[in-house]
Design goal:
The structure is a homodimer of 360-residue chains. Chain A has helices at 21-34, 47-54, 80-86, 91-100, 113-124, 159-176, 198-210, 238-263, 267-275, 277-287, 313-328, 331-350, 352-358; strands at 9-13, 40-45, 65-69, 106-109, 134-140, 145-149, 183-188, 216-222, 233-235, 294-298, 303-307. By secondary structure, chain A is α/β, with parallel strands linked by helices. Chain A folds into two domains: 1-125 and 300-329, Isopropylmalate Dehydrogenase (3-Layer(aba) Sandwich); 153-292 and 330-342, Isopropylmalate Dehydrogenase (3-Layer(aba) Sandwich). In chain A, helix 6 (159-176) packs antiparallel against helix 12. Chain A starts with 8 loop residues before the first strand and ends with a helix. At the A-B interface, helix 8, helix 9 and helix 10 of A face helix 8, helix 9 and helix 10 of B.
Chain lengths: 360, 360
Amino acid sequence: MNSSEAKVTLAVDAMGSDRGAAEVVAGVSIALDVSPRGTKFLLFGKDEILQNHISKFENLQNGQVEVRHAPEVVEMDEKPIAGIKGKKNSSMALALKSVKDQEAQALLSCGNTGCLMAGSTIRLRTLEGVERPALCTIWPGRERYFTLLDAGANPHAKPYHIAQNAILGSNYARVALGLVRPKIGLLTIGTEEGKGNEMINETHSMLKEIDGSIINYSGLIEGFQIFENAVDVVVCDGFVGNIVLKACESLSKLISSFLDEELRRNALRKTGALLSKGAFKSLKQRINPEQFGGAPLLGLTQNVIKAHGSSNRNHISGAVKIALDLVQHDMLAQMAIDISEANEIFRPELFPEASAKSTE
Amino acid sequence: MNSSEAKVTLAVDAMGSDRGAAEVVAGVSIALDVSPRGTKFLLFGKDEILQNHISKFENLQNGQVEVRHAPEVVEMDEKPIAGIKGKKNSSMALALKSVKDQEAQALLSCGNTGCLMAGSTIRLRTLEGVERPALCTIWPGRERYFTLLDAGANPHAKPYHIAQNAILGSNYARVALGLVRPKIGLLTIGTEEGKGNEMINETHSMLKEIDGSIINYSGLIEGFQIFENAVDVVVCDGFVGNIVLKACESLSKLISSFLDEELRRNALRKTGALLSKGAFKSLKQRINPEQFGGAPLLGLTQNVIKAHGSSNRNHISGAVKIALDLVQHDMLAQMAIDISEANEIFRPELFPEASAKSTE
């Protein structure tokens, strides 16, 4: 290798997008132009379909893109385990295999989230000392973007899962948001100690133990503080995170459509809307930023990025960029070190019986 | 009493609003004009201050409004129990006492939420068979408004608390939203049975037991469905409900201020915004409806309505209307019947040991 930069290969599950494989291929084409030289893309899906889409983009025909035929597709309504175990020749399963075999250093998919989470956990395994992966999403805040995890990978979280999520999210925020010491907050319903539930209290204690050395913990935060950029990484269990994420996504769509309806209500408003249409376009981009089109599944031995099923080509391109960044910055290496150090500190809480014995 | 309509007396804690007592008094003035004849208002607060504000509104001087002097005020940062027990002569405590003594049939306050919840529970007690009250909020949906509870009164909820909330919310939605058989949904992260956590599964079973007879249960719903009006009453525990409520309120403010910023960015956009300003005003009213300015604390022996600390006079007036409606419709009577019937059905789950004995 001549270059000082490691050459990255990205496995792309090109099927399973709501907008079809054409949109995924178009996204890869946009991303390719801004990717480091030597980046390779393995596109998994039906050969004929993908070749047809690829033929429409000149830059996809310079040898950087390779199609890997996958005769099956994991559908959106399939159950997690059944979808991934039952369809060993699906684009998702084969893309996962290429990452497992270290042919590719990262995987991008906009397919079935449940199947991708189950498949990644089964096929790629979690980092040593991590029991459950977490889905990490990027949100718009008043002054800057912030991350929230877990957005639904682990709805049965224990305190140490949530405490580990702080480490996972902190490492991700360093790369994706370019922060040196991301501020972490634990999402709860009142910021006085002891006001939340038992799980919050235990997690809060664990986070304080690793504050300063491994993470930069700001403490408890309430729901209204997240959009005010009180912190850079919001941690919560997957049950709360998924509900908040989906409610907020849905509210944001509702407000957009109310605004749209109101602006069309009469000729005067329509004229006004035409003059200020730039404002509505900018608003949309601020609320749903295309550069953050992907959400990583953190805590695995490999980089796995989930793009929204309804991603457009710009979102896909944003997701590709995030995937490449994670590899280039070797996020996983630092994450593994941090998890290992934290587990040394957490051990008494994780194994209360063993600890009681050792101090006898 | 000559009228066929019962004459209602409403106790108003006039202190503790972020906008001051003047705004509360102005709200009462607006409400009075549209209230049933004979409605009485007891305003609790500092005599001099309240008399001064009242003197500015002609309709408040016709004998329907009475000031009750309260030398103390519960501040926003006071702890629940300390605030209510330590200040027996506060406007909140004295207003609660007037409801307890049945001098008034409902209480309205925009003061400290924690103190109001603690004070109401201690002073007024819960309905027979109800262990914990729930805070019920009204939200804007795509086609119509819906309710969500618990918005934070009980963050340590057990399945039967959440199941009871369905009954409380259903009775409230009948009066506040004018629905005959409000549809109930249990908020979770996947609508397949067994996908949520243990609490969801247990609550779901209990709700199915009373479906048809006592409530109209639609089943599990996800975060993105609430704004789509999948149901009329969303039930969840107070921890999730409070986080979702505060996150959504905050997101809604964020979007407003992004829109505002974008519309002011250049002269063209400013001109457009001026022409379509009616649209932005309507949008605001749809997102933050003034007619639903109050959130009831349900499950108590009396009607208690919490208005937002930042309520303007129209929100206060809306909250007064809701309070009077609850009394006029005698919501509490039907609620008590429904709770009692449901508890007969739930009993085995509530008291598994007693039930095991009785079937021996």
